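Appendix B, example 12.
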Amino acid sequence: MEELARAQPGFIGIDSARSPDGLGITVSYWESEEAIAAWKAHAEHVPVQRLGRERWYDWFHTRVARVERESSNS
C-alpha cells in the first residue's frame, strides 16, 4: 500500500514505527483533505482497509491533523 500511496496525487510522505511488543504507528502526510479523502476511497485501498480490520488489527485509531511547521537539526 505504501508504494500505491506514494503514487497518489497529494502524497507528501510517510513515517512508521513499531515497538518490540508489536504496537505500531504509521503517519501519512498529504497536501489536502481532498487528497486524504481520495486515498481513503481509492479502489485498491478500500479492500485492504477491510482486510486490516478483519485480520490484522484488534483495534486502530485514525487521527487527521494539520502540520503547521516542521524543523530539524540535521
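The two ends are 29 Å apart (CA to CA). Helices lie at 2-6, 33-40, 45-56.
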